[in-house]
Structure formats: C-alpha cells, structure tokens
Design a protein that fits this description.
Layout (H helix, E strand, L loop, with lengths): L4 H10 L7 E4 L2 H11 L4 E5 L6 H4 L2 E4 L2 H11 L3 E2 L9 E2 L3 E5 L3 E12 L4 E7 L6 H7 L4 E5 L8 H10 L4 H20 L2 E12 L4 E3 L3 E4 L21 H8 L3 E4 L4 E5 L2 H14 L5 E4 L6 H12 L6 E8 L4 H14 L6 E7 L2 H10 L5 E2 L2 H13 L2
The structure holds guanosine-5'-diphosphate and manganese (II) ion.
The site of guanosine-5'-diphosphate has 15 residues, from helix 3, strand 7 and strand 10.
C-alpha cells in the first residue's frame, strides 16, 4: 500500500528521522496562513499524490509570501498533475503540503527495499539525489552504494557509517546522516515496509541533514500487524476497479489489454496471461478469484471484469482441485443469470469432474465456448476478439 509524502513524514518523525516542518491542507486560503505560521522567508508548496516526479511536472513550487503560497496552492489544488509515474491523463491533486523551505547544499538518494535474489533487505545510497534512481543504476551503477541487511540483527552501526562516509559526509553531518540511516531501517522494519525512499535526503548550508521527500510503501501481507495503517489509505489515489475488487477480496490488478481473465491461483493467472500474449492478444487484468471459487466470487469477478470498457472477451480458466469443476460450472451459470455478459466467453475447466462440467456448460444455453486445455482456450479467445 502506498501513502502520501506528508503521511510518510509523520511516520519519519515518529522514528526520529529529521524532516522539515510542514502542514497539509486542502484549502488555498489556509496555505497562506500556514506560510505565516511556519515563519520562514521561503515555503514550499507540494502536491500530494502517490506518484513521484512531481517536481518536474509542476507540482512543487517555492513561495516567498503568504500570497504566493496561496497562488501556488490554488494552481496546484484540483490540477491533473502529470508526471512520468502517473498515467497520461495525470492524477488529480486533492491536498498540498506547505513546508518550510530548505537551503539545499547537496541532494542524496537513500532507499531500502527487499532484494528478492538474496531474500534480504538492502539499503542503497547515492550522491545522485533528486534524480531518477533507475537511470543512475543504469548509467553509473558505481555511484550507488549498498549494504545488505541481516534482518534478524538489523542494520549495523558500521554499515550506516560506511554508507554515510561513502557519501562524503564528515564530522557532525556524518553523525546526523548515520542517525537518519539507522532510524530509517527501524522504520522499514517496524512498519513492515516493502519500500522506503528518501529522494532527496539533503544537507543544508547551515549544517543539517534531513529527509526532504518521503516515499513509504507498506507490505499489504503484514497489515494485520498494523491496524492503524488502514487509516492512511487514500482510495482516491487508487484505480476504482481495484478498490471495488478489494472489497470482494479478489486479487485484481488492472492492465491495458483486451482479454478479461478469471482464474484461480496466482500461478495459473500468470500462466494464463502469458499464453494470451503468446496467442497474440493481451490481458486486460490479473484476477485471482482464490481457492474457494464459488457463485459469489465468480459473479463479482464478472462484474469487475465487465466494468472495464477495454474488455472485448472473457477467458475463465479454473483448475478444480479442492473445488470440483461441476460446482464451478454451476457457479458460472448462476453468475451469468446475475450479470449480463455482453462479450464472448471462453471457459476452460480442468481437474476433478471436468467432463461433467463441460456437459453442464454446453447444455446450459449460455453463449460460451468450452476449451480443451490452456492453448486451445487462448486460441479461442483471441479468435473471438477477431485478431
Ligand atoms: P518529487 O519530484 O515528486 O520526487 O518531489 P520532491 O519532494 O523530491 O521535490 C522535488 C525537488 O524539489 C527536490 O529534488 C528539490 O530539488 C526541490 N525542493 C523540494 N523542497 C525544496 C526546498 O525546501 N528548497 C528548495 N530549494 N528546493 C526544494
Ligand atoms: Mn522525490
């Protein structure tokens, strides 16, 4: 789960990671009074959306008076902010963070994420802060310093030191940087994050080191340990269909192809997407209806898939292991009564009672094609779309 920068910074404060003072608001008038309360000559007005790259898109502006803070807030609030990380239509800005301005000396990159190759978290830092870190990794990988973290003992002091000195910090500023890096690990670990990035972490002309930006992603699978994280969710930032699907406990990810997929099990869902591509089309979604596919999940699955106007056909690919295929076939028939299926439907059922299920489907009178195997199913679905 993603959260906003201002929420990430609240969490940073809890873990004693230095951040500038600031207040979030949805009102341009309030932006002016916040500027005054911050009491600094320069304030920064920052669009709060879940995507990065806001600076380049015009979502980060400096203000030198209450009026200017209000003008910038007015321009940013409600705008469709386009950045390299949003869709082409942009993301609507509903709130702005008004923050005291910092006199930047240098910008650094700091991040922690899971290195899946070695199954351990890794902390990465770079002197190339404020830039696209993927590009740095591609063009000058030697500019990224890494420390692998042993999760049972956490980031060690010598590792934080090595990274801080590696970035060129000295004296008191090295001490501040070490504190930030150490506390950042505590935050990643304590909040069960999947990713934390500070881009940029800055040094200032008056000798301070702090986090100027905050990207904090939580691991959804650990959310049961952090009930308070649920309050940080902003559904306005998420794909409406994905929000709807999460209410039904469906694992749904929207994609941009034409074939709606209803599958049980993540592995089979991945294989289904692959074979659709192989057959010459592309999936409109990833949808894992879970192990206990029944009338309700199948009905909800159809509803979600059909709400996507890009869907030109639906491929149901279910393996009846614990759930018998005949029950799934009846589930599809029931679901078809509840939902008006307006596009071609191809069904492939394999496993227990598959033959019986096939017969049930053929006799049902529902307009659908039954497929024999994965390849046949993919070919039939691509043919149904007509390309
Ligand atoms: P992002 O573009 O979405 O990653 O937003 P950031 O929070 O990283 O801000 C983008 C850039 O704005 C930073 O890299 C800084 O160069 C600049 N910026 C942000 N806050 C300040 C500030 O207080 N003072 C100055 N001078 N620049 C700032
Ligand atoms: Mn940033």
């Amino acid at each position: 789960m993603k959260i906003h920068e201002y929420q990430g910074k609240e969490i940073f404060r809890k873990y004693k990671i230095a951040v500038p003072n600031g207040v979030v608001t949805t009102s341009a008038d309030e932006a002016a009074s916040i500027y005054t309360k911050l009491g600094k000559s320069v304030a920064v007005v920052k669009a709060q959306i879940h995507a990065g790259g806001r600076g380049k898109g015009g979502g980060v502006k400096l203000a030198k008076s209450p009026d200017e803070a209000k003008t910038h807030a007015k321009a940013i609030l409600g705008m469709m902010l386009k950045t390299p990380q949003t869709g082409p239509e942009g993301q609507k800005v509903n709130s702005v963070l008004i923050e005291e301005g910092s006199d930047i000396l240098k910008e650094y990159y700091v991040g922690i994420t899971l290195d899946r190759r070695i199954s351990k978290p890794v902390m990465m830092v770079s002197t190339e802060g404020g830039m696209d870190i993927e590009e740095v990794a591609h063009k000058s990988p030697e500019k990224i310093l890494k420390e692998t973290i042993e999760p049972s003992i956490g980031l060690q002091r010598f590792q934080a030191s090595r990274l801080a000195y590696g970035l060129g910090f000295e004296g008191d500023m090295a001490k501040q940087a070490i504190t930030i890096l150490s506390n950042l690990w505590n935050c990643y670990d304590g909040e069960d994050c999947s990713l934390i990035e500070i881009n940029p972490m800055i040094s200032t002309k008056d000798g301070k080191v702090m986090a100027l930006d905050a990207k904090v992603n939580f691991d959804d699978n650990a959310q049961y340990r952090h009930p308070e994280q649920v309050n940080l969710r902003d559904e306005a930032e998420e794909d409406p269909l994905e929000v709807e699907a999460s209410k039904y406990n469906l694992n749904y990810v929207r994609l941009d192809g034409a074939v709606g997929c209803m599958v049980n099990g993540a592995g089979l869902a991945m294989a289904t997407m692959d074979i659709i591509k192989y057959a010459g089309s592309s999936p409109a979604n990833f949808l894992d209806v879970g192990g206990g596919a029944n009338v309700t999940t199948v009905t909800n699955g159809f509803k979600i898939i059909l709400s996507d106007p890009n869907v030109k056909a639906i491929f149901v690919n279910i393996f009846g292991g614990i759930v018998r295929c005949d029950r799934i076939a009846n589930g599809i028939i029931e679901a078809a009564k509840n939902v008006n299926i307006t596009v071609p439907l191809v069904v492939r059922l394999a496993g227990t009672n598959a033959e019986e299920a096939k017969e049930i489907l053929m006799k049902s009178g529902i307009k659908l094609e039954v497929a024999d195997g994965l390849k046949d199913g993919a070919e039939k679905i691509v043919k149904a779309i007509g390309k």
